[in-house]
Amino acid sequence: MPALEQAATAAPATVGFIGLGTMGLPMARRLVEHGYTVRGFDPVEPARAALAAAGGVACASAAEAATGADAVVTMLPDGAVVRAAMLDGPAAAAHAMRRGAVLIEMSSSAPLATRALGDALAQAGIAVVDAPVSGGVRKAEAGTLSIMAGGDLDVIAQVRPVLRAMGSNLFETGALGSAHAMKALNNYVSAAGLIAACEAIQIGRAFGLDPVVMTDILNASTGRNNTTENKLKPFILTERYDSGFGLALMTKDIGIAAGLADALDRAAPFSHAVADFARQALERLGREADHTAVDRYLKLLNGERDAG
Ligand code: NAD
What we know:
By secondary structure, the chain is of the alpha/beta class. The chain folds into 2 domains: 3-176, Rossmann fold (3-Layer(aba) Sandwich); 181-301, N-(1-d-carboxylethyl)-l-norvaline Dehydrogenase, domain 2. The chain is built from 15 helices and 9 strands. The chain has helices spanning 3-6, 24-33, 45-53, 62-66, 79-87, 111-122, 137-142, 153-166, 178-207, 211-219, 226-230, 232-236, 247-263, 269-285, 294-307; strands spanning 14-18, 37-41, 57-58, 71-74, 102-105, 127-130, 133-134, 145-150, 167-174. The strands form 2 sheets. Strands 3-2-1-4-5-6 form a 6-stranded parallel beta sheet, sandwiched between helices. The chain has a 3-stranded mixed beta sheet with strand order 7-8-9. Strand 4, helix 5 and strand 5 (102-105) form a beta-alpha-beta unit. The radius of gyration is 20 Å and the shape is globular. The structure holds nicotinamide-adenine-dinucleotide. Nicotinamide-adenine-dinucleotide binds at residues 18-24, 41-44, 47, 62, 75-78, 81, 85, 107-108, 133, 136-137, 244-245, 249. Residues 18-24, 41-44, 47, 62, 75-78, 81, 85, 107-108, 133, 136-137, 244-245, 249 line the site of nicotinamide-adenine-dinucleotide.
């Protein structure tokens, strides 16, 4: 039985985990709970300390985390950071990985760059599965993420137990990069729904509608979406804007979707409009802003108009 499948029963397999941020840390904790030896790296010291407190091994570099690993998980801001963590310089993970080990690339990254990374790592005998996730921090903590997986079916089968420890839905999407394409397209649709819902609430409020009543009606009607069901009341109407998914990450994802349309020579004017809106909101609100703060950006635009 391959080592990764033995974890729950016999000698635990070893997983390197690179990127212990909002999502990565709870996902790494799930692997520890499932019996894996988890060797984690993040440049942020408190993140490494939190992994160690949960029973993982805190490592000083990506290469150290990858040493002796059967699989390495990356959960990083984007594909450029992943490529650097895998390949750039002596502290990069690929140098420490054995032939036959698997990279499970779980960040939301650009699909064509993922294919290029797969080609580069194949030369070192390292297979790659792209396995981005859907669902936020709470689903990461509960191990109930939806995971899309692209790549060779045998390699996906090899790492399935690792994926199952972090997610309850697993979809196979096709060749390497296809899961990253699917993830970006999903987040584009989700972002379009977020912006539409925030605009509608603000227009309705200006007309005299009650935002709470509007939310209830949207949720009982055809305008219902993930934002109306899960974000309007807790994060947007309260102006808390702290859902845990950054505006910078959302903007990156929409840009990937719009860029993919360009690369495939598809007419996609709406995805470009959504991407432009997100970029402008990010420029105005800054990189620390939550994605739900696009509502605040709309309020700023309206304030400027009302003042002018
Ligand atoms: P985050 O910014 O909280 O975490 C990223 C972590 O990577 C940080 O802790 C950072 O210190 C670390 N990092 C940066 N460079 C590194 C390097 N070279 N080596 C090791 N670690 C490094 O982001 P997040 O919210 O956890 O998102 C991670 C990925 O998951 C992103 O691609 C995002 O788009 C995707 N995602 C996020 C959510 C969410 O709800 N937050 C949901 C689904 C997918």
